Request: fold
Amino acid sequence: MPKFMDVHTGMTGIDQDGLVKAHKADTDIENEEGVHFLNAWADPKSGKVFCLSEGPNIEAVQRVHERAGHKADEIYEVALEV
Amino acid sequence: MPKFMDVHTGMTGIDQDGLVKAHKADTDIENEEGVHFLNAWADPKSGKVFCLSEGPNIEAVQRVHERAGHKADEIYEVALEV
Reply:
């Protein structure tokens, strides 16, 4: 299944609890869109959050994020991996 | 050790062989800067490449990338992870 990296901005000051809760909001509904969120990494200083997922397409990944209340600013299909 | 996510742009058309070679150029010299590159994901369509690493600081990560010939456009310390 294709993998995706999405980028959120403006999450300055996010803490571990906030990241866990945001990730859980995604994983709670991801099955309904055929998506699986693998990892998320956050930089509280810049407010950047990166999410790695797998799913059918970019639109499905975005639907999960939108329904969870945190639309991604950018989503890329990362066809290559090392 | 702190983890970092860096972002490269303009790598449109990169293929698996190119990603492997670029990653190897980093890992060949990473020890000299106390850095370890964990994963890299690439989107050949947009030209975005994301690299996950661990190391002492952003400057050390950038030194590896610069010496390998592909300076990162953005580097973030991702203090939080899920």
